[in-house]
Amino acid sequence: MKKLMIPLIMLFFGINYSYGQIAFGVAPGLSLNSAYLGYKIDNTIVPYFGFQYLSAGFEISEIGKKYDYDLKKLVSYMDKAEANASLFIPNIGIKYFVAKQNKIQAYVNLNLSKPILSAELKDNTTDSPDLRDFNEGIDNLSIFGGELGFGVEYFFDDNFSVGGEFGIRYFHLEYDDIRNRDIYNPDIGNDQSVEIEDNFQFNISPTFSRISLNYYF
After folding, report:
1. Which DSSP letter does residue 139 get?
2. Which residues are bridge partners to 171 per DSSP?
3. CA 63 – CA 216 distance, rounded (Å)
4. I need a labelling partner for 152 at 20 to 30 A (CA). Which of 51, 95, 168, 187 fits?
């Protein structure tokens, strides 16, 4: 992924600004809304940066009474757990116009993204190994993705168009963790610390469609 993003960045910063337009677009959706900012060169190619954001959270609480065997009576209690997560999805891409017919222009679109996940799970216990493992495990996640699509824009004038795009997404998630575990070694008659590596990978490639509003300045 890094090998592909480097030439895209070089292209974006190395373009000739003598003839072109700043491009801005939004793509409203049911789940995630996205926006991009780029530069249209010679009415043909648009290198751009894009961004998406998603935030979610929940809180669960239980209040009641339970029997305390030390005090030998009913006592009040409250159990509470909450979680908060934020997903930042920056991406860099290129839109290339391949054909033009009157006010209609067809294009292909390629972008690469590096989602950044921030999450925390808490409850009212002072030291929970499960919570500690979950919060530390977030740092061991690696996520990246990309899109390849084909679309058409209808230009109402030189500064505004409405587009429709269909394509395929690729999403990859990987979890990698190295930990130590004590196991009994009969050869030495004692416990021995061994290194264990956990690895989990998940890939998905769904198709997508979207409508975009594009502005050129």
Report:
1. G
2. 145, 204
3. 57
4. 51
